[in-house]
Fold these 4 entries.
Entry 1:
Amino acid sequence: MDKIAVIGLGYVGLPLARLLATKYPVLGYDLSQERVVALKKGHDATLEVSQALLESVLNTKESPKGLTLSHEARSLEGHDVFIITVPTPVDDQKAPDLSALTQASLTVGGYLKKGAVVVYESTVYPGATEEVCLPILEKASGLKYNTDFYLGYSPERINPGDKTRSIEDIMKVTSGSTPEVAQKIDQLYGSVITAGTYMAPSIKVAEAAKVIENAQRDINIAFVNELKQIFDLMQIDTNEVLAAAKTKWNFLDFYPGLVGGHCIVVDPYYLAHKAKQLGHDPQVILSGRRVNDSMAEYHGKKIIEMLKTSALDPSNSRILVLGLSFKANVPDLRNSKVIDLIDYLKCRCMTVEVLDPMVEAHAAQALCGFDLESMEHCLGTEYDLVVHAVGHDAFKELKFYTKFDYRW
Ligand SMILES: NC(=O)c1ccc[n+]([C@@H]2O[C@H](COP(=O)([O-])OP(=O)(O)OC[C@H]3O[C@@H](n4cnc5c(N)ncnc54)[C@H](O)[C@@H]3O)[C@@H](O)[C@H]2O)c1
């Protein structure tokens, strides 16, 4: 039985390692000792894997399958399949930051043995696996590509916070550097993904398929965000327009909102980067980004306008923002545009309070420099305006004292 190592135990890596461990011996390796120590105790701060599910695969030493966790690179020794699930953010210039990917490749390269397969799951631009990661693996291992070791790419498509579609319920795209390896990788994923697999004809096709999923979503949301701005000028309710329009079978179901997180606001830049490198100016992709990135300020201005037209002085108003994370039912603050909206309001309003029971207080303090309010405090306080920023289930059925509600 192949020994599998999953490198990077975040939103993507941990659910995958847990699932594979139900059938195979799996090493979960992460640079962060803190993360590994918490996981060993059954605590997943991303809330993607429950304690019971995690513990059900941990500590099965007497069994050939199960999950072992480590923050020490030497534990990678002796593995046959390496699956790399490390972050691929953008830098300050919105250019791909491949440093975690190249670092992970360097580490894995040091432990490659003949016959090993390295599968990348991190989102990249088409070509990155073979152009950027492959040379690092070859150099670090001294082994020859497609003779001594092989590559694969299988993009992750999980939807954090979505408890109805777990990793095994989402069809997985697979690919490999030779037909035989592609088959082997496809069978490996097929053995745990109940929704099945789709074997792409090449690594580049699989890379491209992933990056366009999120770029397409970004553009579609940008379109409805632009509609929102137009219909606001016409004093038409955008959600009412969308409800009417979607009665046609081929009208796409998207809603206006703040677009944040680690994927949709990042991946289009990966595609744009590669396009520009090849001399193409990706106008649609980047205009979608611009529209979505402008929405926090747009809503900030609308909120101030709403207060003023209601004869409320913003500099004397008390506002409550419901939700801080980048989307509903997750604690993830990465690229949350609610933070931009709060910054905008804080410069103009007397009091802006924030409630988010999903987010850990220290994470909000570390990233944003303010404290979250308690549920008890917010339910007992009278506000001028409540911004319904993130639709966490925990907010359903709750009633806050407020003169106005603001929704997008
Ligand atoms: N979060 C999502 O919803 C989602 C969905 C699909 C695809 N993706 C893609 O999957 C990849 C991973 O995203 P994520 O959200 O799981 O990231 P994450 O930040 O949640 O987790 C990454 C983990 O990797 C660890 N790590 C970083 N560098 C490492 C290294 N060199 N060696 C070992 N461990 C290392 C970090 O400590 C962290 O625990 C990204 O490319 C992302 O675009 C994410």
Entry 2:
Amino acid sequence: MPELPEVETIRRGLQANIINKKIVKIDIHKPKQVHGDALVFRKKILGNKIVRVDRIGKLLIFKLQKGEDYLLVHLKMTGQLIYKNKKSIVAGGHNLPIGEQLPNKYSHIIIYFNDNSILFYNDLRQFGYLKIVHHLVKEEIKSKYGLEPLTKDFTWLNFLALMEKKKGILKSILLNQQVFSGIGNIYADEICFRAGVRPDRRVESLKAGEQKKIYQACQYIMSKAVASGGTTFSDYRTTDGAHGAYVKYLKVYGRAKQKCLKCKNNKITKYKVAGRGTHFCGYCQQ
Ligand SMILES: [Zn+2]
């Protein structure tokens, strides 16, 4: 499942490629992946242009030129966006074969541009969606997202104010999208490792120094992940179809029972915290 760095990588790839191209045709093979009325959706998309690609958390927000409408796209588990023109392919999302047969049996929505380039929305399990909303609805949706690392609002004071209001397990709070948006399972483990704090600690037990380390680790880990195009395991690809480079920087995630890279002695523990497989070093993390 794509996390924030992966979705940001897709966003950048699309922003560089689809802006100001007129949409001349749209195929909707699976109407259920369009939330709301598919006919209205079609009417609003046709003849329109995407003028900007934004993102909040894992939600992609395409600003349309006409009206005050926005196209929202969420890839969920297995969604994939593939943009194809004569010269190149940019793709992001679930790791289906790219560049072979397009459209394929998972290409449920296809958007055609006036320069003969095409944007495919593929989705194996069909949990993702596209929908068009008015500016005000978009703002309401955005307001429900938590504080996002790498935005200007992610200040130490804002972070601290949020943490001090919360009670519970650190990892669940990091993963709660209404508290912090865009931190997923992989990065939550990496953040806790870098901060030297166990993911199963209760936040109300954190000392000021630990809170500060978690804050700094959020910024460090997320910015490094975005810079390297995200993380690829079995089901992820970046916008150019390559595998995310961040995987080589992972210190604890996916390293259960292997020697800790920091203390070089203790073995990485893996067990379920907040319902998710969680990795940490019991020696380096308190
Ligand atoms: Zn260690």
Entry 3:
Amino acid sequence: MEAKYVCSYCDQTLNVGKDIVLVAKNDVGEKGLIMLHAELGNYTSKFSPGFSLIEGDLINFSCPICKHKLTNRKNEKLANFIHIDENEKKFDIVISAIYGEKCTYKIEEHEVIETFGDHWARYQNPDWFLLF
Ligand SMILES: [Zn+2]
């Protein structure tokens, strides 16, 4: 099976090849599409034309299929979705919702098993990941 990312609410696939496609809303309420690189720790992103984000913007991510907010229930500065790897193993993925903040957490059974990005230490201790 091919690795994929799915929405925690509707279970639909969020990636097209190497891009995770999400709906994003920036600080001034503008909406657009954002494509995040599917490789964890790769912070390259693309936007739909006319949509922009500036460093420090709190992005409001939502699922393009069911429209559910992907904001972490304990911390609005984080967002989450699910990764299913090629062996059909399921992980929770938590990313920063602050544009320019590089931190990603891979969680298995309520435990952070891998971190990515220069800013991973910013959300080290809180118990946000216990909520899944
Ligand atoms: Zn969804």
Entry 4:
Amino acid sequence: MEILHYPVLHEPVLEYLALSTDEEAVMIDCTTGEGGHSNLFLSRFPRLHVIGIDRDKEIQKKAIERLSIYGERFTPVNAWFDDYLKSAESSSADRILFDLGISTFHYEESRRGFSFRKDERLDMRLNENATLSAATIVNTYAEEELADLIYRYGEERYSRRIARAFVEYREKKPIETSKEAEDIIFHAVPKEYRYGRISPATRTFQALRIEVNGELDRIKPSLLEAIRVLKSGGRLAVITFHSLEDRIVKWTFKEEAAKENPAIRIITKKPVIPDEKEEKENAPSRSAKLRVVEKI
Ligand SMILES: C[S@@+](CC[C@H](N)C(=O)[O-])C[C@H]1O[C@@H](n2cnc3c(N)ncnc32)[C@H](O)[C@@H]1O
């Protein structure tokens, strides 16, 4: 059997979202992925029903197979989580979880160009029916637009040089693969930046992925809907992987908790981060942060 890492921050997530074992409850896993968190909750809480959202059909297939042992206690939904939550009934869920971003599956197996270590079509779409791909962005966006997005979503200080290099390259031939994009970035940045702690392509690839899937724009509206959908006393947990995501979550929770008649109270005053053991065992968890709120 395939060995899967424990899902990120699984111990604190289980602890903060714990239910009593004889309680019937509903949890919405907004980012089911391969079903790691859902599996933990379904196995730990025998009367829990999980509604598992994911936009990506391919990874969702894996979760459906893995969680089939729970029968009707797991209901998969193929949708963007913001769309799903908008139409969900108010006060209908006991627990809501977001584990934002993409999964190891996307980098390693999806063949969609998420990783600059692989030579794949530059795609990056979670929704196979969407028209905007990473290749469309690098081949059609105006230079300034491209530079702005690499700066905004990648916090890349060489965004202008990278955008210029993309535009110069595509005047000769379209940019089609992840390796081609990585190579263009590598040569666009100063020599001393090429061999740093992270690859010079990391930030630009993050920016492209965020733009393709509208990742950041979906967070705040989804959190507000999630608060509406929670039952009173219900809990909402969000795991983020970079500061752009975390900032949105932190401020949305702060604003909502500071209102005159607040709908939530903040449970984690500071974000919970992985301990040394988890960091060692699961490198991608290094930048993870967990924030939890409770509906009043
Ligand atoms: C970090 S992974 C989740 C991993 C999961 N918690 C596990 O334990 O296996 C995030 C997942 O959310 C999906 N996703 C990201 N943004 C989404 C959105 N706005 N709507 C629906 N699914 C989304 C991705 O396709 C990916 O499978």
